[in-house]
């Protein structure tokens, strides 16, 4: 099944990768892109990615799991993963919902995040889990 977001096609099982191809993964997206958004916290502002949501069991690393590096900060709850070769953020386990991953929409094969139109920005600066997530 294929869902469209603007002119962008999102497949039910969509392959994704980092820039250099060392990390490849598949995201199960039966409902298309769920909650695509940017975050304004100090970390997300710097990386600039649009993240969408998937359940933990809906992301499967196909290649290069050993190439992923973990970054954590502040409350040390969220788990942000990057390719150790090219540095691209691929996905993270959310602190707002630890049963979900956020994944980098730009990693999806054939998806240009600039074609998604207006994307919500969430307030990560004032996250309820801390007094200041900057």
From TrEMBL:
InterPro entries per record: CENP-V-like (IPR052355), CENP-V/GFA (IPR006913), Mss4-like_sf (IPR011057)
Source organism per UniProt: Methylophaga lonarensis MPL
PROSITE patterns: CENP_V_GFA
Official protein name in the record: Glutathione-dependent formaldehyde-activating protein
Domain called CENP-V/GFA: residue spans: 14-130
Keyword Ribosomal protein tagged: no
SUPFAM superfamilies documented for this protein: Mss4-like (SSF51316)
Molecular functions per Gene Ontology: carbon-sulfur lyase activity; metal ion binding
Pfam name, any one: GFA
Coiled coil regions, renumbered to chain: none
Family label: Belongs to the Gfa family.
UniProt keywords, alphabetically: Metal-binding, Zinc
């Amino acid at each position: 099944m294929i869902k469209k977001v603007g002119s962008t096609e999102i497949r039910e099982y969509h392959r994704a990768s980092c820039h250099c191809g060392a990390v490849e993964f598949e995201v199960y997206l039966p409902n298309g892109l769920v909650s695509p958004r940017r975050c304004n916290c100090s970390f997300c502002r710097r990386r600039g990615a649009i993240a969408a949501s998937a359940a933990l069991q809906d992301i499967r690393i196909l290649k290069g799991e050993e190439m992923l590096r973990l970054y954590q900060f502040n409350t040390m709850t969220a788990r942000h993963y990057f390719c150790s070769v090219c540095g691209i953020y691929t996905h993270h386990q959310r602190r707002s919902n630890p049963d979900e991953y956020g994944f980098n929409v730009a990693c999806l094969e054939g998806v240009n995040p600039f074609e998604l139109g207006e994307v919500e920005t969430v307030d990560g600066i004032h996250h309820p889990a801390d007094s200041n997530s900057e």
